[in-house]
Design a protein that fits this description.
By secondary structure, the protein is α+β, with helices and mostly antiparallel strands. The protein is built from five helices and five strands. The radius of gyration is 13 Å and the shape is globular.
């Protein structure tokens, strides 16, 4: 997951959050979420994450959805699901509110990457 976080931040992803959801759902251990300022940037972030994970970790996503139009792109890697939103789409759907009981473990995965770009929310 560090590779995915780093790849997203390399493309200037904003408000990156990593939520540990394994105690709340069986679909994944972690949800990664970030925002992009435009659909084009969201696509660039998604492409960067997919390419970097394939090159460095030799893994491909199980599922990719939402690349057209690119307002909410979902990359499912089994153990983690990466949600890439445009800012307005992220506010509208509010996954952080839906998964509010999940601990925010962002700091565990992003210290080396670009801590100035990472929002740190209080862990529950």
């Amino acid at each position: 997951m560090r590779t995915a976080v780093s790849a997203a931040l390399d493309k200037k992803a904003i408000d990156l959050d990593v939520l540990a959801v394994s105690a709340l759902t069986s679909i994944a251990d972690y949800f990664l979420m970030c925002s992009a300022t435009s659909e084009r940037q969201a696509l660039a972030i998604a492409d960067s994450v997919v390419d970097k994970l394939r090159e460095d970790d030799h893994v491909k996503p199980l599922l990719v959805e939402g690349t057209t139009p690119g307002r909410w792109i979902l990359l499912d890697y089994g153990d983690f699901i990466f949600h890439i939103f445009t800012e307005d789409c992220r506010r509208f759907y509010g996954l952080e509110r839906l998964w509010g009981d999940a601990p925010n473990v962002t700091a565990e995965f992003s210290e080396e990457a670009a801590p100035a770009n990472v929002r740190r929310t209080k862990t529950s």
